[in-house]
Amino acid sequence: MLPNPPLTVLAVDPGFDRVGAAVLQKINSGEILLHSTCIRTDRKDSPAERIQTITKSLEKIIEKFKPEHFITETILFAKNKKTAINVAQARGAMINTASNFGLSVFEYSPLQVKIAITSYGRGDKKQISYMVSKLLKLDTSNMIDDECDAIAVGLTHLSSYNPVFHSKNK
């Protein structure tokens, strides 16, 4: 049986003020982190300018690392409608950017990510960070939550994706 070719993914934790972004690669049965960052937008900018900051940053990452898949977390909001609208618009622009580059788009709920990473659906940020550090053997103590969450979203996909059972999801 031939080994699977490496799979490179760009995973994001969607936001408006901050967007966690991580590029991970699966080689055979192991995962490695190639890049992670927290994209920040300026609150003084207009919503359109802030979305453009996010999409331009993602474009640079896509051009540099050439991922095949774009992975995002679904968003859940209950309180602030303005924030929900802004994040939803930014998330839509991110998905559109990925689609424009031909990436297959996959989505996971926060519950799916927590179960995949901590084996517990109510895992908190500290538990996610701890498990990400253990799974990838890296220090997450200085990472912003959004960056660590993006890594967790990417790990969720890499642990569950099987090319035999998934069709291209554009």
Automatic annotation (TrEMBL):
Cofactor requirement: Mg(2+)
Task performed by this protein: The RuvA-RuvB-RuvC complex processes Holliday junction (HJ) DNA during genetic recombination and DNA repair. Endonuclease that resolves HJ intermediates. Cleaves cruciform DNA by making single-stranded nicks across the HJ at symmetrical positions within the homologous arms, yielding a 5'-phosphate and a 3'-hydroxyl group; requires a central core of homology in the junction. The consensus cleavage sequence is 5'-(A/T)TT(C/G)-3'. Cleavage occurs on the 3'-side of the TT dinucleotide at the point of strand exchange.
HAMAP family with a match to the protein in the record: RuvC (MF_00034)
Sequence positions that bind Mg(2+) 2: E73
GO-annotated molecular function: crossover junction DNA endonuclease activity; DNA binding; magnesium ion binding
Gene3D superfamilies the UniProt entry points to: Ribonuclease H-like superfamily/Ribonuclease H
Coiled-coil stretches: none
Protein name (database record): Crossover junction endodeoxyribonuclease RuvC
Leading EC class: hydrolase
